[in-house]
Structure prediction request, 191 residues.
Amino acid sequence: MSKFTADYILKMNDIVREGDPILRTVTKEVELPLSKEDKETLLCMLQFLKNSQDPVLSKKYHLRGGVGLSANQIGLDKRMFAVYVKDEEGNAHEYMLVNPKIISHSVTKSYLADGEGCLSVDRPVPGFVPRSERIKVRAYDLDGKEVVLRLKGLMSIVFQHEIDHLNGIMFYDHINKENPFKLPEDASIKS
Ligand SMILES: O=CN(O)C[C@@H](CC1CCCC1)C(=O)N1NCCC[C@H]1C(=O)Nc1ccccn1
Ligand code: NI
Prediction:
């Protein structure tokens, strides 16, 4: 069994930082049906995100708040990620998915108004990160069942950030070098 069992409390020192080659790796597809080990790792990753957004636990464990986490960010060459996002109404949306593929996307772009950060990047990198405004994703859940998700808004951006990680892409790869705050005409800004 790997270190990342369901009851293992993931901390910031378990998260690899830029410079580690695993972050520039195109991660390997995960075998289906999911092994017990891979299921436990995903549960551990989701718990980290929940802890990181909990006012008490994030302080107790010194966690930076995170809404998504990819397996290569904890050093695993596996095509899987977890997402935990609370929406404006306070409803939580959680996902633990493997072998994701963006099967279609909008021409229109969107950006986070404050740019993006990354738990694997210990420095601010200013600039807009252009992303597809809407995406359709096919992936597999913990039971190995195929899921197709149509995403927009913040969730679409989070999924693109995580799927980028699984392809060895960092958010700042998308920032315009000449003018980091360049906006094409058809962009909508998400705050
Ligand atoms: O690969 C995964 N990561 O690197 C964790 C990242 C993933 C998000 C970055 C932009 C889209 C996905 C993460 O969550 N953060 N990045 C660094 C610290 C802040 C935090 C964050 O952006 N939080 C947030 C954003 C919008 C709304 C609410 N909270
Ligand atoms: Ni990241």
In short: The chain is about 20% helix and 25% strand. The helical segments are 36-52, 55-60, 153-166. Residues 118-120, 161, 165 surround nickel (II) ion (ligand 2) (CB under 6 Å).
